[in-house]
Amino acid sequence: MHRYEDEVKEKDNRSRNFEEMNREYKEEMGADFAAGTYVDRGDRAEFQESETKSMGYSLGWVALVFAIASWFVWPVLLGVTSAVLGFIAYRQGARKTGAWSMGVGLVAAAVYLFIIPLYYAVS
């Protein structure tokens, strides 16, 4: 019986020691186990900020292309899509292209939904 109790105490001590050792290391370990990679965690915030800005910049131009295309093909679908993508780009830092794509896309959708039916109703 003593042997079993000793094993239980030893296991309990090992788990306490493990918890005490790991209290200092509260970080993600996925990159540590990847083969052949080194991750410098010092400038993580700067990398994420620049990545978000570049994604917003690209998304702003894609939304603007959708907005311009909405004047020629599928005005409601492409206009609303460009407005949504423009809003996302605006939130990610591409203020000018995001605002322009929201405006141009919504105007294209509004013209198709409201102005053109009035034109056909009058003529």
From TrEMBL:
Superkingdom of the organism of origin: Bacteria
Membrane-spanning intervals of the chain: 61-90, 102-122
Keywords of this entry: Coiled coil, Membrane, Transmembrane, Transmembrane helix
Calcium recorded as keyword: no
InterPro entries named among the record's database cross-references: YqfX-like (IPR055338)
Coiled coil: 1-28
Entry protein name: DUF4190 domain-containing protein
Organism: Paenibacillus thailandensis
The organism's taxonomic lineage, starting at the top: Bacteria, Bacillati, Bacillota, Bacilli, Bacillales
